[in-house]
Amino acid sequence: MIGDPTPFAERVLDLVERIPHGMVMSYGDIAEYLGEGGPRQVGRVMAIWGGGVPWWRVVRADGRPVQGHESPCLAHWREERTPMRGERADMRHARWQGDHQ
């Protein structure tokens, strides 16, 4: 049984829900924005509890989609008109800096 999200997980999930359509944040961006954890901790939160939030807006630092979920991720990006370079998010144009941009 997975259990309820931890307070850290709740903060991660809340931030992911706020990423606007067509934008992305890397795992490291999320940890940096929150000022806690790191990319691996954010990835673990997303792997366990991320199915109910727009998970496709969370990417690797180089803009690659979540491993194993590339096809649905790319479909969401096309639908949301996320800036892309090939099959990666164009981090220069698609990266969201959070509410305090």
TrEMBL record:
Keywords: DNA damage. One of its GO terms (biological process) is DNA repair. Pfam families: DNA_binding_1 (PF01035). Residues 7-69 form the Methylated-DNA-[protein]-cysteine S-methyltransferase DNA binding domain. InterPro entries: ATL_DNA_repair, MethylDNA_cys_MeTrfase_DNA-bd, MethylDNA_cys_MeTrfase_DNAb, WH-like_DNA-bd_sf. One of its GO terms (molecular function) is catalytic activity. It comes from the Bacteria. PANTHER family: 6-O-METHYLGUANINE DNA METHYLTRANSFERASE, ALKYLTRANSFERASE-LIKE PROTEIN 1. This is Methylated-DNA-[protein]-cysteine S-methyltransferase DNA binding domain-containing protein. It comes from Sphaerisporangium melleum.
